[in-house]
Specification:
By secondary structure, this protein is mostly beta strands. It contains five helices and 26 strands.
């Protein structure tokens, strides 16, 4: 029974297929007969009297859907042929392309030749910059790519060695004519900054910084004019390192030694290392001691998504001009201890810290320092940083007590990256001081360009102590196409009490700055300032500088 059913189905299918193709071709239908009974060659006998004979010629066992159907009439035999012919290659390609066009968008059409510059503009005109390479590079180079030799495993397979020595830095030379606090000097001065970096692994290194033609903030110079110029060349030489320290990560070191991944990061440093906090306002000095950090922490209980805590201590080279004297005269007579934190919170960024200077010997006494700052953007219109500084101690005259507030503001314009109107304001009480500063600068050093010197020619500045004064600076900075800078600024210092430390009378200043890179290695800069000081001779300065990075 099953065999008959299969035979019946096969018979029915074989008979139906020819009829279907015949109907589609528009030819007379053939009665349902087994396929074996249909004539497949020209001149075959009639299958049915009185009806037209249909002859089907098949090139392959399966009829291709895309093949062309050709209908022919044979006058001699009154027969109709249905012939399936394959398309030629060109026609098949056209059909395939037409089908693709129905599924995909057209290919891009280039109206002109390929232009490399247009492709760069797709990425905002950005391109790779080839910076000047250090004159001395031995071993693994910094910021390079390619195939590297296998690393050594002296410190463990999971903390491989990446040894490399690099010597780099910059050379600054300036010509200036300055009148600064009664001294009128025209001079050319130069300084050389050398960084020596010995890379050991990806997280460990030894670093040193030298200023070989500078000593105690005095620079190699030739005074060629001015009322007080000595018309003489003065060379300053100092081979001692300004910094020399080791830094690394204890987590990476222990991972290498044990062969087991550690669950913590603990970056640390020891030696004569730079301490730079609150953009250099609170701390900007190289101290002899150590520090370690607890980075990238968070607290669900306190609602803090990210914060860092750094602990530091120093036992020599502690510079504080207000307490220990200028130019590091007594920087070996004090110890320093402190902690600082960086916190993302309250839709902004918080910096806070505490430090204490413990004087020894002739400088016996303890002075405490506190700071806090909050930075955020308001309504996409104003960027603000508000900084608070306080210090208090054992000085019987109260010269170690002070408090200052600095508010730094910039407006967000339609050109937020290049056009920056700014206004920075301050008020100080008593004798506010930075924790440490190795450049004899005061707490107001970053209020504006009229409050900073050039660390080279003795360029004049407004009183930056913040001692019983208020004031600020308003200015406009324009960066063109991020390829040059120009700044105009008005500034003021207004004392409300003469304590013998800061400004005795009001001071006003107009300053400007312009700088432009000549190429990737050379930079040109020009500054000018005129400062009105009531009760004393006005200050002014004009200078040009060329800087070579290497």
């Amino acid at each position: 029974m099953i065999c008959r059913l299969h035979a019946y189905r096969r018979h029915t299918w074989n008979a139906t297929v020819p009829l279907l193709f015949a109907a589609l071709a528009g030819v007379p239908a053939l009665a349902a007969e087994p396929l074996e009974q249909v004539a497949t060659a020209e001149g075959a006998s009639e299958a049915r009297k009185g009806g037209a004979t249909t002859e089907v010629v098949r090139e392959t066992a399966m009829v291709q859907e895309e093949d062309e159907t050709e209908v022919e009439n044979d006058p001699a035999s009154s027969a109709t042929k249905v012939v399936k012919k394959p398309k030629d290659t060109a026609e098949r390609n056209r059909a395939s392309a037409s089908a693709k066009n129905d599924l995909f968008r057209p290919d891009p059409s280039y109206q002109s030749k390929y232009a490399h510059e247009e492709q760069v503009e797709i990425y905002g005109g950005k391109f790779a910059v080839d910076p000047p390479r250090p004159p001395i590079e031995i071993g693994r180079q910094q910021y390079t790519s390619g195939m590297f030799e296998p690393s050594g495993t002296l410190l463990g397979e999971k903390n491989p060695l990446l040894p490399g020595l690099a010597v780099y830095g910059d050379w600054r030379t300036a010509v200036a004519y300055n009148r600064n606090n009664g001294k009128d000097i025209a001079q050319i001065a130069t300084r050389l900054n050398l960084d020596v970096d010995l890379k050991i692994t990806g997280t460990e290194r030894i670093h040193a910084f030298f200023t070989p033609i500078t000593k105690d903030n005095h620079f190699t110079r030739y005074e060629f004019g001015g009322r007080d110029g000595d018309r003489d060349f003065t060379g300053e030489f100092d081979a001692e390192p300004q910094t020399l320290f080791f830094e690394g990560d204890l987590g990476s070191i222990m991972t290498g030694f044990t062969g087991q991944e550690q669950s913590y990061d603990l970056p640390f440093t020891v030696g004569l290392f730079p301490l730079f906090l609150q953009n250099g306002i609170w701390a900007n000095d190289a101290i002899l001691g150590g520090a370690f950090s607890l980075p990238a922490k968070n607290s669900a209980a306190l609602g803090l998504s990210n914060f860092d805590i750094t602990f530091f201590a120093a036992f020599d080279d502690v510079d504080n001009p207000g307490i220990l004297g200028l130019n590091g005269a007594n920087n070996h007579l004090a110890n320093l201890y402190g902690v600082t934190a960086f916190i993302d919170a309250f839709d902004g960024y918080i910096e806070t810290g505490y430090g204490v200077i413990d004087g020894q010997g002739a400088q016996d006494g303890t002075t405490h320092f506190l700071t806090a700052a909050y930075t955020r953007r308001y309504m996409n219109t104003l960027s603000n940083s508000t900084r608070v500084f306080a210090n208090f101690g054992d000085d019987p005259d109260g010269d170690s007590d002070g408090f200052a507030i600095i508010s730094e503001n910039s407006l967000i314009t339609s050109l937020p990256s290049t056009l920056l109107p700014y206004g920075n304001f301050f008020v100080g009480f008593g004798s506010p001081q930075p924790l440490v500063d190795g450049f004899n600068a005061g707490i107001l050093k970053n209020v504006g360009i009229n409050f900073e010197t050039d660390a080279l020619t003795g360029y004049p500045k407004l009183d930056d102590t913040g001692s019983n004064t208020f004031g600020g600076a308003i200015g406009l900075q324009y960066l063109f196409n991020l390829d040059q800078q120009i700044v105009f600024e008005l500034a003021m210092v207004q004392p409300f009490e003469n304590d013998g430390i800061g400004a005795r009378e009001a001071q006003y200043a107009l300053g400007m700055r312009y700088q432009i890179p000549i190429d990737h290695a050379w930079l040109f800069r020009a500054d000018a300032t005129y400062q009105i000081q009531q009760g004393v001779e006005d200050n002014f300065g004009i200078r040009t500088e060329v800087r070579r990075k290497f």
